TrEMBL record:
Record bears the keyword 4Fe-4S: no
One GO CC term, this protein: membrane
Domain G-protein coupled receptors family 1 profile positions: 23-262
Keyword Transmembrane: yes
Residue runs in coiled coils: none
Keyword annotations of the record: Membrane, Transmembrane, Transmembrane helix
One MF annotation (Gene Ontology) recorded for this entry: odorant binding
Any Pfam family hit: 7tm_1
Transmembrane domains' residue ranges: 6-31, 43-66, 72-94, 124-146, 166-186, 207-224, 244-264
Signal peptide: none
Organism: Oncorhynchus tshawytscha
Stated name of the protein: G-protein coupled receptors family 1 profile domain-containing protein
UniProt-annotated location(s): Membrane
Lineage: Eukaryota, Metazoa, Chordata, Craniata, Vertebrata
Length: 293
């Protein structure tokens, strides 16, 4: 019974990862196929969100499969995967902060938006996001490499619990403050600058969307405390079942839903994405009847 449940969970996790990685790659291809998207700061940041979450899902799936089958890998490979996992974990809220600042500039400083939010500066901001994401883990990795280089050549069981919660918590608090400040300013500016209630309503919905995205990302912090609480459960079978559900709902689904919700909500991306899928699925075929002599 236990083996069958583990097998079901494995295929469930594998299926969810494959489906949402495909969706992310499809939206990323849609953005890359249009030159107007490649030169717009908002969509450069959205493409980075898709790219970052796709890497995170791929690394998470790899770590899950290694842990599921109890496979040992060389520590340097484990360190590389954990480094990528930690970077992409931190990059997600930082990217939301940059997206918030870009929208804040567009609404509150419309005359300077084209000057400030250039493609080059947007790419520089993306590079800064990766620098902040990598520095926390890279310091630990470099220190360990200098003091004990043979550590990375020995085999180890690589799992996903190697996240730096202290630094991550600081990043999430800072991002929360940035999002709340920028979007309150957007709402105030939109309502005072124009009597158009549609613009203010759209800004308010954007606030809620980014807060929902941040909330989805914050839910992953509950994984470790909940797992510790589940460890006190007497039954091993119940613990394993609840642990997989905890992993599914707090680690996987938040990363899957956030870019999907944002992409389907965007008025420019949604028609292209849905249109391509429907064209491939529901192409109308008109027969050509000719008179046969």
């Amino acid at each position: 019974m236990l083996c069958s449940m583990l097998l079901i969970f494995m295929f469930l996790v594998l299926g969810i990862h494959v489906v949402f990685i495909y969706i992310n790659l499809a939206m990323l291809f849609t953005l890359w196929s249009k030159p107007s998207f490649r030169h717009t700061a908002r969509y450069i940041l959205f493409a980075h969100m898709l790219f970052n979450d796709t890497i995170h899902l791929a690394i998470t799936l790899t770590l899950y499969m290694l842990g599921h089958f109890h496979l040992f890998v060389v520590r340097v490979a484990c360190a590389f995967m954990v480094l990528l996992s930690s970077c992409t974990f931190v990059n997600a809220p930082l990217n939301l902060a940059v997206m918030s600042l870009e929208r804040y500039t567009a609404v509150c400083f419309p005359l300077r938006h084209s000057e400030l939010a250039t493609p080059g500066r947007t790419q520089l901001a993306v590079g800064l996001v990766w620098a902040l994401g990598v520095i926390n883990v890279l310091i630990d990795v470099c220190a360990l490499f200098l003091t004990e280089p043979s550590f990375f050549l020995s085999p180890a069981l690589c799992t996903i619990e190697h996240l730096q919660t202290g630094f991550n918590a600081f990043c999430f608090v800072a991002v929360s403050l940035i999002i709340i400040y920028t979007y309150i300013a957007i709402i105030v500016t939109a309502r005072s600058a124009s009597s158009d209630k549609t613009k203010a309503s759209k800004a308010h919905k954007t606030v809620l969307l980014h807060l929902v995205q941040l909330g989805l990302l914050l839910s992953s912090f509950l994984y470790a405390p909940i797992e510790s609480a589940l460890a006190s459960v007497g039954s091993t079978t119940i613990f394993i079942d609840l642990r997989y559900l905890n992993f599914l709902f707090l680690i996987i689904l938040p990363r899957c839903l956030s870019p999907l919700i944002y992409g389907l909500r965007d008025d420019a991306v949604r028609p292209l994405h849905i249109g391509k899928r429907s064209t491939c699925t529901f192409r109308k075929v008109i027969p050509n009847f000719q008179k046969i002599i």
